[in-house]
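Case study 2.
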Amino acid sequence: MSRVLICDDESDIVSALRIYLESESIDVSEASNGKEALDLMASPEGQDIQLILLDVMMPVMDGIRAMSEIRKISNVPIIMLTAKSEDADKVMGLTIGADDYVTKPFNPVELMARVKSQLRRYTCLGSQAGSLNETNEEVYTVGGIELNDRSKEVHLDGELVALTPLEYDILKFMMTHKNEVLSPKQIYESVWDDTAIGAESTVAVHIRHLREKLEYDSANPRYLKAVWGHGYKMEDK
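Prediction:
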């Protein structure tokens, strides 16, 4: 059974989220601020958490700072809970390591669709690159990048690279469409399995993360190229 950590200082929101999640047979842990969430993730209980719903504005430690610290110890998917006016926080959160965001007041159907999508991705890939999936044996290679979809490992010039489940899925999609120009909308709808709302900035942040991990000079990428006005291309030289 999946377990989700809800981190929000508003008890009414926590109660509502608990109802939605438990109606889908998802176990719930709670934290009322970022410090509590960080402490929980660093404890043995944190090993069971497969997704975090993280509010941005909280006392003691806000969601942005908490996410930055959590990313040092865990690749677990994080969905930010933001107000409509917090556009800058959405961008900041995605830059630091959030996988998605839901705007308050949230639509329960949309929320659960995003939760299930992230849980499927995390369950398939596991908490770190390297989990075993015996049903797939493909190995994809572009230049010095090798993606083994059986072992869920990515190597750059023979060195293992640690990717989040979302980064892995983006890379796999681009490697299976190498030398094709892919729009942010195409990437988002394929990887997130959702309507491409706000796709351009979201995809751009994750592409930047991949460049930082896979390019020796992320400002002048060899593999993950931007095609101005159109999207991105995985270039096989």
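The first strand starts at residue 3 and ends at 7.
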